[in-house]
Structures are given as structure tokens and as C-alpha cells.
Design a protein that fits this description.
The structure holds two protein chains of two kinds. By secondary structure, chain A is mostly beta strands. Chain A contains no helices and eleven strands. The radius of gyration of chain B is 13 Å and the shape is globular. Classes of the chains: A mainly beta, B mainly beta.
Chain lengths: 109, 114
């Protein structure tokens, strides 16, 4: 079966760095997405990785290792507005997105 | 500005009733998707469409149907609502040229089936 695993909840301090991990087992791989979802709102796109390595975009970076079925999202200089759920999704061989349950990130002052 | 809208935003209905959730996008995207989101689960794909007159079943399509008569709209119908269909429903769209383009999501519809 297809499976995406990520921690249910994480807590971090304002101004710090946090890494949210995602491991996956899917039938085929056409890229990995990270989305941010604030409570009661729609998911919004953060990043896309299809090749191994690190993609940096401002305070957010995303890493992929296809051989390990592993990705992480790195958030630097945390701000209170970063409190949200972070969703990992893999595009499988049929170009369908398989979604993890999301990681709720709580930022404390 | 281009956008994707859903209506209604909240709906309470009774078991057995037919319910239709609307999704309208002005991105001119060919790809449209319907997901449901429940606590403890990731987004689960209900139905999707890659263009006018094209519809396909997703992972959790039982009890749901869609139709695509134009580029802008993909309404989702619950034929006979069940309590298990209480959920938050998201519509999304993406460009056709590259399937792995980001999906843009509507604001969601919270459906309660009593």
C-alpha cells in the first residue's frame, strides 16, 4: 500500500529552527510537495522536490532523498504566524497526490 | 485576480438527502480535484477531472459523483448523504501542461450530515 508518515505535532520557540520529517512508500514517484495549512483555511503550496538535494526558498527549505524515501521541511527564524499544519504529499506513478496526515506546528513565544 | 471558490461554506443536512457542493475556478485550469479532509487522515481524493467531459474516480469515490460540463466548474454530488460523509471538502485545480504543478485550493466546505 501507499503510505506517508510525518509526526502528528511539534512544538518550537519563536526565532528558532525546526525540521519536519516525512517518510514515504508509494507506487512510483513524480515529486514531493509541502503545503502549509492554517487552521480553518485551505492548504497553500510551499515547495516541490523531484531531484535529491536541498531547495531553499527564503526562511523555508525542503530536502529530498529518493533512495531513502525521505524528505524534510526546514523552517528558520520561526515566527508566530508559522503556527500551522504542514502537509507532505507525494505524486505517484499515476500523477495522483498521496497526502500525509500533516504535522501541527505550535510556536511558543 | 484569478481564484477558486466553493459554496456553500457550511452545510448541515440529513441522512439520505442529496447534496451538491459547488466549485468554481477562474484560473482557466483544465485539472480539477475534490478532496475530503478528516482528523487523523491526510487529504483523500474523491474525484478528479482533466478537462471538459472527463471525470475519474479517486480513492474514496463511493457515494459521490461529479460532472464537468465546462472548464470553470466541477460540482460534487452526494447522492444519498450518510453520517460517514461528515467532513471538510476541498476543491483544487492545477494547470494541465504539467501534472505535477502545484494545486490551488478553494476555501473548503464544512458538511455535517445528521
Amino acid at each position: 500500500g501507499q503510505n506517508i508518515d510525518q509526526p502528528t505535532e511539534m512544538t518550537a520557540t519563536e526565532g528558532a529552527i525546526v525540521q519536519i520529517n516525512c517518510t514515504y512508500q508509494t507506487s512510483g514517484f513524480n515529486g514531493l510537495f509541502w503545503y502549509q495549512q492554517h487552521a480553518g483555511e485551505a492548504p497553500t503550496f510551499l515547495s516541490y522536490n523531484v531531484l535529491d538535494g536541498l531547495e531553499e526558498k527564503g526562511r523555508f527549505s525542503s530536502f529530498l532523498s529518493r533512495s531513502k524515501g525521505y524528505s524534510y521541511l526546514l523552517l528558520k527564524e520561526l515566527q508566530m504566524k508559522d503556527s500551522a499544519s504542514y502537509l507532505c504529499a507525494v505524486m505517484d506513478s499515476n500523477y495522483q497526490l498521496i497526502w500525509g496526515a500533516g504535522t501541527k506546528l505550535i510556536i511558543k513565544p | 485576480d484569478a481564484e477558486i471558490t466553493q459554496s456553500p461554506r457550511h452545510k448541515i443536512t440529513e441522512t439520505g438527502r442529496q447534496v451538491t457542493l459547488a466549485c468554481h475556478q477562474t484560473w482557466n485550469h483544465n485539472n480539477m480535484f475534490w478532496y475530503r479532509q478528516d482528523l487523523g487522515h491526510g487529504l483523500r481524493l474523491i474525484h478528479y477531472s482533466y478537462g471538459v467531459q472527463d471525470t475519474n474516480k479517486g480513492e474514496v469515490s463511493d457515494g459521490y459523483s461529479v460532472s464537468r460540463s465546462n472548464t470553470e466548474d466541477l460540482p460534487l454530488t452526494l447522492e444519498s448523504a450518510a453520517s460517514s460523509q461528515t467532513s471538510v471538502y476541498f476543491c483544487a485545480s492545477s494547470m494541465a501542461s504539467e501534472p505535477y504543478n502545484e494545486q490551488f485550493f478553494g476555501p473548503g466546505t464544512r458538511l455535517t450530515v445528521l
